[in-house]
Amino acid sequence: MLRGVGAERVRARRTASRRPVDLASHVGAHPRGGVERQPCARGRHPKCDPGSIRLSESAAQLIRVLAPLGAFALGLALERIAPHATLRPAWRANLGLWLLDAMLMAAVCGACGWTVAAWAQTSGVGLLNELDASLGVGVAATVVGLDLVSYAWHRANHEVAFLWRFHRVHHADADYHVSTALRFHPGELLLALPVRLGAIALLGASPIAVAAFEVIFGIANVLEHGNFDLPRPVEKTLGAVLVTPALHRRHHSTERSERDSNFGTILCLWDRLARTLRPTTSASVFPTGLPGRSGAGARSLTSMLLAPLRSSAGRT
Ligand SMILES: [Zn+2]
Ligand SMILES: [Zn+2]
């Protein structure tokens, strides 16, 4: 039960959201691009608050694509400066799968995370909208909240046999490299979609907060798959809070007990709390991939797409 000022705010927004045209209208970005006038329910939302951040969907999508590309370039540079192991990256297979995923997700989803967040915001749906959270609190809570959902979903991908059939394609890359970050079966991405969208709606994340999460998540995903060693002091400092390449490399170990650890993507907090963290450093060298899956089958696009159908798709 909300009391006092908080309750007043919620009541005011609910009343406003029921009116077809209400309060001061504002000019803001339409969820599918373009610009339109919308009823402004509360003054503290970024779309309603004069002078606050206004980020159009197209700009957000551009940043969402460019930021991981920048991280990819940085990862490649670091792999040349301080390589961890000598590899033979599966460039063609990994890039081919990424291209397929990009086209499929553009067709199925487009910017659906932004659209769901915009709907939740204008409808007053979700925890953060109920609490009338400020922009800063909303962004921080969204990044942390969706990272927690990602941890849980990733762990489910390892524990549920059906989900593992798809996720194992990511793990089958024996040459752990920034391009491994692009290697996900389209079925895994499609299955994850309702989970991510449901979490956005339940959380009441704003479009800007979702965009911020996707940018940070994309950068973290690319860099933690890097085949590079960090200087020990840097690794120790970053590893206290964030998932480092060494931590995620351990998750790609051929040993199942090690693979079932270090599930985080941005923060290693969830692994610490759930006791699935297996601390490691760049000094540790071990084989990555899946046992018996380092041959041509792990480097063929067709083989990767058909992997969930294989009778040997059980956990190894
Ligand atoms: Zn995994
Ligand atoms: Zn990975």
Task: Pick out its properties.
binds zinc ion; 316 residues; 3% strand; disordered N terminus; globular; mainly alpha; two-stranded antiparallel sheet
Beta-strand portion reads: under 5%
Q: Name the strands of the widest sheet in spatial order.
A: 1-2
- Please bin the fraction of helical residues: 55-70%
Give a short account of the largest sheet. 2 strands, antiparallel
Provide a concise account of the structure shown.
This protein has helices at 4-18, 57-81, 91-108, 112-123, 127-131, 135-159, 161-171, 186-203, 207-223, 232-239, 245-251, 256-259, 269-274, 301-306; strands spanning 25-29, 35-39. The chain is mostly helical.
What do these coordinates show?
By secondary structure, this protein is mainly alpha-helical. The protein is 56% helix and 3% strand. It has 14 helices and two strands. The chain has helices spanning 4-18, 57-81, 91-108, 112-123, 127-131, 135-159, 161-171, 186-203, 207-223, 232-239, 245-251, 256-259, 269-274, 301-306, and strands at 25-29, 35-39. Strand 1 (25-29) and strand 2 form a beta hairpin. Helix 2 (57-81) packs parallel to helix 9 (207-223). The chain is globular and about 50 Å long. It starts with a helix and ends in a 10-residue tail after the last helix. Residues 1-7 and 10-44 have low confidence and may be disordered. The structure holds zinc ion (2 copies). One zinc ion binds at residues 154, 158, 167, 171, 251.
Give the topology.
Blueprint: H1 4-18, E1 25-29, E2 35-39, H2 57-81, H3 91-108, H4 112-123, H5 127-131, H6 135-159, H7 161-171, H8 186-203, H9 207-223, H10 232-239, H11 245-251, H12 256-259, H13 269-274, H14 301-306
Antiparallel strand pairs: 1-2
Helix pairs in contact: 2-9, 4-8, 4-9, 6-7, 6-8, 6-9
